Amino acid sequence: MIVRKAVVSNFSDALKLVKNTGSSSVVHELLAKKGVLNAIVIEKIDNRAANILKQEAISVGASVALNENVSRFKKGVSDTVLFATTSQIDKLVNKFRLQPFRLKEIALKLENIVNKKKVFKYKERYLDLSNPVVMGIVNVDPNSFSGDGLTDPDEALKRAVEFERLGAGIIDIGAESSRPGTRLVNAKTEIKRLIPALKRIKKNVKIPVSIDTYKYETAKAALDEGADIINDIFALRRGKEISVKLIADAKAGVILMHMKGIPKDMQTCPEYKNCTSEVYGFLARQKEYVVGFGIEEERIAVDPGPGFGKTVEHNVELIKSIGVFSTLGAVVGAVSRKKFVKALAGEDRTSFIAANFLAAVCGADIIRVHDVKETVKVLKIIETFRRI
């Protein structure tokens, strides 16, 4: 007889263990759901709801960590952590649907966390995010921080075609540098750099094309030329309603990124009380804002913005916790060639590939990179691990 520990990282791992016992197929999924423990943070929950949550969690065998004010029946809000298996969460969802104090809203979010298949829609198509997708960066700005800016549209086309051949699932074209300390350019300059390359690329690649811009004028020009996704470092705060409506009407995908400050001053002593929580809160608010204009949730991806108004420690925290953002939709891991990676491991391609891989392991769905060939290869390891 052998008694050993099993490693269960997700539902697939649990399902495989159950099947290997030779048990009836009728109970496979039911038992697997009991084998996956989820830790779910609920911030600023009404203390009355927290009390109900605790009682219902106990009734299904789950555990809850509560603020002491809840047990003292004090009014207000607090933070809660729920520890529950997927099976227990399914039961809690049904219970919370009948409860007051916004527990119905919590039920919906819990259901999305454990049961929703992740895709990223753009136009009439979508990307399957069962495994990480590589987004290849094509810079047409001569001031690119990574030194790979292309001023010749034909060279930009050549790079995009090569990226597609190597296995990239998205091309991201940028015509304005956002490196720390840079001065932003006007829309006319950006469009002049962007459109010739975009026209060529759209005619010659089959994968979706994303445009790295926050300007309404540039986004409109790009969408008119067939761009599929708008990748906005200001999370649509600059263009506001007019940009949101533009994207909604085009049925394009959109990537909302967090940035503290603006590129010119974002790295001047950035401070957070709780970096992950504050970044999550910002992205959740921006997502709610754009959904209000009719953009489907599955057309929205989020980027916690490592390197944009964060210290090295903040960046490490965000990458380690990047899976947290998956409750908001597809998550972009954009760490390629960033300064904090160089500070941690040196200015070497090996360091950059390792950072891309780590972002994917920690839960990013779309990995935005300069080094497409190498990143596609290492991400095959993740795909294999998930399959076996």
Automatic annotation (TrEMBL):
Annotated ranges, domain Pterin-binding: 132-388
Superkingdom as given in the UniProt entry: Bacteria
PROSITE patterns: DHPS_2, PTERIN_BINDING
GO BP terms in the entry: folic acid biosynthetic process; tetrahydrofolate biosynthetic process
Needed co-factor(s): Mg(2+)
Keyword Transcription: no
Matches recorded under InterPro entries: DHP_synth-like, DHP_synth_dom, Dihydropteroate_synth-like_sf, Pterin-binding_dom
Keyword annotations from UniProtKB, A to Z: Folate biosynthesis, Magnesium, Metal-binding, Transferase
Pathway listed: Cofactor biosynthesis; tetrahydrofolate biosynthesis; 7,8-dihydrofolate from 2-amino-4-hydroxy-6-hydroxymethyl-7,8-dihydropteridine diphosphate and 4-aminobenzoate: step 1/2
Presence of the UniProt keyword Transferase in the record: yes
Protein's name in the database: dihydropteroate synthase
Organism expressing this protein natively: Endomicrobium trichonymphae
